[in-house]
Amino acid sequence: MGNGKRTVVVTGFGPFGEHTVNASWVAVKELQKLGLGPDVELHVHEVPVEYQTVKSMVPLLWEQYRPQLVVHVGVSGVATTVTLEKCGHNHGYKRLDNSSFCPDSQCCVEGGPECIDSIIDMDAICKRVTNLGLGVSLSVSVSQDAGRYLCDYIYYTSLHLSQGRSAFLHVPPLGKPYSGEDLGRALRAILLEMLELLPQDQDTNHCEHAH
Question: pTM of the entire structure?
Fold first, then answer.
C-alpha cells in the first residue's frame, strides 16, 4: 500500500532483580532472527532498567529511525500469557531502578495526561492472534495496567512522544511456560497484525477508520 518499507523499532529490557536473563530481550532477539518480512525494516534495542536512560533513549529512537511503529517488550513475573498493554500511566513511579533511582516527581511527564491509550486496538489484535492459532498453546491477553515500573514508564514516554503510535507487550519469564523461540514467534505474529491494523499514512490524522 504505502511505498517503500515500513520501519519498526522493538525494544526489550536488560536484567533486573531476579530476572538475571530478561525474557523480553531474549524474545526480541528471537523476533529479530525471524524478521517481519521483506517490507519491514526491523531495528531492535536492549534498554537498561533505568528511568533516566529510558527518558533519553526513547526520543532518540523516534528521531533516528522515524518508525511507523515502536513496540516495547518487558517481562512480568506474574504474567502467564503474552499480554498486550492498552495504555501507559503518568504517575506512581516509586520503585527504584537498577541504579537505585526513581523520579522525584514519581511521574513520567510533568503536566502530561494521567493515561495515554495506544491507537492500536489491542482487543482486536488479541482476537486476531488468538484466531491464528500459533502452533504453540500460546495465549494472548489484554491489560490496562503495565505495572508502574520501567515497563509502564517506557510505554508512557513513547505514547506521549508518538501520539499513541506505540505498543507494549509483557511476556512471562522464560520457561513459564514458553521458550524464547515461542515468545519470538508470538511477537512476530502480534507485530504483523499490528502493522495490518495500523493506519497507513502517519501524516494524516483525519482518516484512520477501516474502509
Answer: 0.92
Per the residue annotation, which of 85, 87, 126, 193 is the catalytic one?
85
Cβ neighbours of 81 (radius 10 Å): 19
Instruction: Mark whether 41 is an active-site residue.
Output: no
- The CATH H-level superfamily of 6-197 is Peptidase C15, pyroglutamyl peptidase I-like (3.40.630.20)
What residue type is assigned to position 153 of the chain? Y
Per-residue pLDDT reduced to its tens digit, 122-133: 999 999 998 887
Q: What per-residue confidence (pLDDT) applies to 137?
A: 64
Strand blocks (E) in the chain: 6-13, 40-47, 69-75, 82-85, 87-89, 115-117, 140-143, 166-171
Q: What percent of the chain has pLDDT over 90?
A: 86
Contact 121, 85 (CB under 8 A): no
- The reply to whether 110 belongs to the active site is no
Instruction: Let me know: does 73 contact 11? Beta carbons within 8 Å.
Output: yes
Catalytic residue, chosen from 87, 108, 126, 151, is 151
DSSP sequence for 58-112: HHHHHHHH--SEEEEEEE-TT-SSEEEE-EEESB---S--TTS---TTSBSSTT-
